[in-house]
Structures are given as C-alpha cells and as structure tokens.
C-alpha cells in the first residue's frame, strides 16, 4: 500500500492545461460547524472565524488521512491562502475542484465566487476579480447532508439509513479530489471531445470555445508528430474537425496506444493551449456478442469500489491509482466495473495508458421520488462530459440492483419509466458505448443483459448459471438483508431482450480467503462453460472496511487464496465436468482412479495448438500429455482424462497445463484429490 499522502499530479490528463496550473492540495485550515454557527457569524469574511484545526486536502473529513477523522458531520468550513502565478498577470485565474461532497460555496477575500451542488463532478469558479494583487484568502463552506437518501451518494452511509445500509461504508464528505488554480485568457478552449471515426482511420474532434471571438481569432490543431493545421474561427464557438490517420494504430488492452492532439487558440485576449488524447477503438454489439474493433470481446472483470483504508474515497497518492490498475491486470482481469462511483480521472488515465477496460456508472440515491430521480439523472450528461474521451470506458451503467428504485420496477411502471428516461438521456449524450440500465436486476431498456447471483451451493449455482445462459425467463434469487429473499428475472415482463449479450455482473462466495479462492476457481469455470455468456464480474478486487470478499485485502496485498487469480482469468482456461466437493478438496478418487471430462474455454482471436500435460505433485518428470488444437473463441468438445494416484498416497495434487507450440504455458489448473477413505466417504 502506498502511504505518501501528497497528491501533486495534474488531475485531468485528458484535458491538459498543466503548463499553466498550481496545485492547492496539502494542509488547509478547517473548522467543523455541526450547529451551523458559521452562516450567522459570517465565517466567509476574513478574520471572522478562528481556524483551530488543520485538514489535508483532498481527503474527506471522515478519513484518517485528512487528520480530522470526524464522522456524521454535516457542515464544515475550509480556509486557505492562495496566490496566482505572476506569469498569469493579464489572464483569468480559475479555481478548480475535482469533486466535493456535496454542496459547496466559495469566497475569495470575502467576495462570493460561486457554488456547486453534487458530490462527484468537477466545477470551477473565475476568481480573478476577487483577488487582491494576485493574492486571496479562500474560504469554502461544504454541506454534506446526513440524510443522503434523496441525493446521489453511492455506498456512503446515510442517516436515516438506506435500504442497503448494511452494504455501505463510511461517508466521504467535503473536498475529496484535487483543488487547483489555472491561468487562461478570457477567450479560451472550454471543451474538447475526441473519438474514433467509425472506420477507425481518423479522429473526430469537437471543440467548444468561450469568450469573445473576434475575426482574428485562430485555432491551431496538431495531431502528435504531424503538421499543425490553422483554422479561422470566424465567430463560431463550436468547431468539428476530422483528423485523418494514414497508418492507424488501434487501441486495445494488448496495445493501449493513445493519440495526443494539441489545440492552440490565438486571440486578442491571449493564447490558450490544451492537450487532449483518445484511442482509436470501437465497441459495438453484433448479435449476442460484444466486439472491440471488430473482434470478439470476452470480459474477465472484477468489481472495484474505489475505497482506501486511510483515505476513504481518495487514493493515498497519485501512484496508488496506477497501482490499482496494475493489480487488476496482474490478476488477469481485463475489465473493472467501477462500482457506483465516478472515480478520480487519474485512475481512468492509467486505465487508458495500461490497457484496462472500464464499466463506468454513477453513484446511486437511496429512496425513490420524482425529485430524487431527476437529481440522479442530472449526473448522466456530466458523467459523459467529463469522461467521454477515455478509450478504456466501454460500458456505461445507470442503476445498480434497483438501488433508489425500492426493489419494485417489475411491478411499478413509474419506476420503469424512470429507468427508460435515464437510458434515453444517457443514449442521447453518448451511445457509442453500450448501456446497462439496471445492473443485476429487472432490465427495462438496455443494451446488455446482466445478472447478479451469489450462492455457496455449487450445484444450485451451476444449475442457475446454465439456465440463465439458455433461457432469459429464468427466475433467480437475491438475498436482501438478513431474512428477505427476492426472486427476479433478467427482464421486466413486457420486454423482449432475447437478442442481447449476456453478462454476469456480480458473483462470489466463501467466508475466508481459502474459501473465496476455491469458489472463485469453480464458479468462474461454470461461467466459462457457456458460449452464450460474454463475460463476468467477480465481487470483488479488494476488501473494503468490513466487506472482506476481495481477492486482495484493503491494503492491496494478495490473500492466501490457494490459487493464482491470473490462471483463473486467463485467456484460455480448463473446464472440468464434475462437481467439486468442498474448499480444500476438489475430487474424491475411488481406489486412486480418476476419470473425468475436460473442456477448454479459449477466448482468444488466434487458434491455439499445443500439448495438454498433466502430472502428480512435484513429480513433473512423470508427465503425460496429449496434442490439442483449439479454434478462436471456442469452448471445446470434451476430452476424457484418466489418471491414477499413487497407491500409497492418501491425498495428492494433480497439475494440468496447456503448452503452446513455443512451450509457453497458456492454461494451468490443479485439483486437490483425496482417496475415498481419506475423505471420510465409504
């Protein structure tokens, strides 16, 4: 776990004005205000308040990293001295916040400069006119309602409780993403939206400008390593360009190549410059399968809730954001479902750079009302506006398990209309990525059918998985709370979603690390058994507070699972045709004899030829083998394997691997085997 709490990296590499910025993270003064005294006493005015505490920005005031560690505080005030760069004289000085939960108001030198509502999206205030000789006394008031049920808050706890309180964690209130200053002219580049053309041989660029646009204003555009192009603005605040690429290099998880584009605006107000990036990639649905750049895509994903032990919602360092991407990739996952949280853009940057696919979804609210639903919907265009350029994002989510819909969409047309309205709004903003309307529950209007299913009964889990793979009308259950079992289907009754891709959205079982690893092995192989299923999302990558179901602990250390997750998630995996016994024991050998079927799930674009090899224990010199060839994106026919344990062995481990023609290990599995008498079975 990275412990350095300084956050100094430029916070939005996909819209980079870092040549003209100042990071404001670090020690600020702070004052809790549980009784709301500050408004009456005008703490927003310099000298009106005594600042008795210090807080580390950008860490929520509940977190240990903040130095405050104050839970159930609904109101807090921040104080910080700021100074613009002398190089910005004659330009505008802009105060930026990455995210503040929940309602923020700001003053500079006693002058009100702006306010913002919403806990997950960025905002900025022009503070130029409030500065005095480039200096400012910044005071920020943040209100974080204890009752969060009507506002988007994700997995932060509420008072009174949400229906899913037992699945929630410590709140993250106040400033929880980077704060910074930027200098720019009064006429400037407001927004850049980049995407790949449908033919994947050019970049479509949409640029929005703001401020006065006299005739002499010019926009210069330069795709990296190419000639700069000059475009007269001619008073148009919106520009759409096509940037051809003669030898396209596509963005894939195996080759996450990024194209950088620099935009330079020249006007009488001065010069502005922004550098943005994207990747040439296309995600689409063809029939019942997902395709990336025209190639079948199988998702091997994990749930990631974006919490750190000392920082809550905020990573302890910039490096920790990269580290989370790396541990997912090292565990063999090619996708992360970032769970009901709009994550720090730096995390998305590293997903783009390192080649990790992302399912992105907004924070949920807690109790349905038309007002709460409308507030939730306002996030969707802002989510797209902030994150559109990231090639790693291949799926948009909306709701999760009807959180905020009160578990009633199957019978309640008002709730169904809320889901349809959110889907249509998001699709109007961006439908270049498939949309999942209500993950794991009764789908209403969606591009992908997913389901959540948790069960420690492996036979039942196997049967339900097979049934869902073959029949969209299958009923399956959810445990809601301690004593409430809820039955649902993939879709509401009047919707026909038979032609859509199938995806497991959550699963996992076991009460300790060894059990988690065992169920992970066996339940994942059941998902890989069915060609109709396009992937899975394991719950979860790492522990969060009391929720100890991660493959890694909360400090990002791999648990003693008894298996390597990378082999469970490999492109090619074993599928065994018997039902395993229990954690620590996979197979019982009667008289030392083993005979069972093996299939392979090969989710690669190239055919695979090689040798299936198996051996007992450490005696690898006594290997047996058989030649195999596996076609792309194939679940093979069954191969029957027969082998015998040593007569003197009560227990043993059978190792199996698939070697390709270059003797590289492409698949590995093992079976813990016991003689019948050792397993206490007659």
From TrEMBL:
Residues 283-440 form the Glycoside hydrolase family 2 catalytic domain. InterPro entries: Beta-gal/glucu_dom_sf, Galactose-bd-like_sf, GH, GH2_Domain-Containing, Glyco_hydro_2, Glyco_hydro_2_cat, Glyco_hydro_2_N, Ig-like_fold. GO terms for molecular function: hydrolase activity. Residues 24-144 form the Glycosyl hydrolases family 2 sugar binding domain. The keyword Hydrolase applies. It comes from the Bacteria. The keyword Cell inner membrane does not apply. Residues 210-281 form the Glycoside hydrolase family 2 immunoglobulin-like beta-sandwich domain. Keywords: Glycosidase, Hydrolase. Belongs to the glycosyl hydrolase 2 family. PANTHER family: BETA-GALACTOSIDASE, HYDROLASE. This is Hydrolase. It comes from Ktedonobacter robiniae.
